Amino acid sequence: FFGSGIPIDQERASLMSSALGNLPALDVPPAELLLAVVVGYIVLIGPISYIVLRRMDRRELAWITAPALVVLFTACSYGIGNSLKGTEIIVNQISLVRVASGSNTAAAEAYAGVFSPERDSYDLTVEADALVAPLNASGMEGMPLAQSDYLADQGNPAHLRGLEVGVFGFQALRADAVVDHAASLEVDWHIAAGDLAGTVTNLGTETVEDVAIVAIGAGEMVGDLGPGESEEFTLGGANFNGSSPSEQIYGFGGFDSSNAEMREVNLRRQVIDSLVGYAGVPGRALGFGAATDRGPFVVGWRTGEGPMTIEIDGRTVQRHEHVIEILSGRPVVDQGPVTVGTGQMSVQVVSTDGDASVSEQAFVSLGSGEVVFSVSVPLEVADVQPEEVTVLIGSDPSMLLSDPGAFPGFFPPGYTASVRDTTSGEWIELGDLGQTTRFEMDDIGAVWDPTGRIEVKVSSNEVNEQFGQVGVWVSAQVSGVIER
Q: C or N terminus of the chain, fewer CB within 10 Å?
């Protein structure tokens, strides 16, 4: 639920490879068809062949009929596969175009999946000054999958030569470049009552489909926007009901791969999950609360070619194109009173000592030892003048987000919390976590860094070995005033 531990780049590569493989030609044949072929083969080469040869009184011909039937069924199986998979080379391309409002350039990521009906080697060209290479997707254990030998030529155009694909095989690749591209979408957003709100506008001349707001653990569908149309939105903080941002946008279900429309939706789900992760992962940066490459984003889809097309040299191919425009930015916080909740803070692990392991950027399992957390407000409110600061500690993030401070008793004896004095550098003890997990700061000036940060240490001594390691996550609530 809180992440697989696979590095972000590999996680994205695996999700994009899965999205590229969302083709009818890559579907597994129906189980009923496979069963019919196997049963037919067994029945024909076994009892039927025997009965026919026995009636002919030529059972010795089994030395001829058996190999002939094997060849016949092999040809039939290949024919069935050929009819299901097709005989065309298929290129399925997904273009991620990262833009900024008012800019005429974009960072383009072009992902392409190449399906081949026969074993062959292909040369590919990208008409841009791009870096191009096979996609380094990962297997179930998080290890990179083996790739065939190839030669990549950087330049304009860029080339990838010698991409080998097996019979009815599939290979994915990626090209990255900065290209000329005017943003179709514009967003004016701000933080209101702890939620991300604003207006998104289509500045282009074509309809942008499935416009949505996405962040870690949160997603909201805006809908299709025609040229010049605008729509308001509100996006709450990350949820912990187990649903991914893509499920919050498209709903759960609808995974019928035989339906072309559902295939399109599933592909878009996987691309969105590659942008912000499958579920909310506090600590990497929650919602719109910290600097991150995982949102918040405004995304929109359109048909047609992207700004950077991957071509197979000298071959006629069947192409599928998908283009998603990704608009990122920093929401604006108006001056005046402001409250920053636990789900909007940036949380990082500064150091660990003793029996402590970090499974996520700020999610720690602690035995006998200590861990120091850095908790900071978003950059948008770094100049807040704090009036109330509350440190909250839980055994997992969902506790602090659902009802902050309402979960004492989850820590066994021996776990204590302290906060660093920014002037002296000394640690000020807060209390025993077995008694309370919510601590109001009395002397805010002593613990509040001018950059909008506090440091919290959780220590454990003489811990009963029967408990093992305990999950620890730290955040804070800050209320104050912004004067600009």
A: C
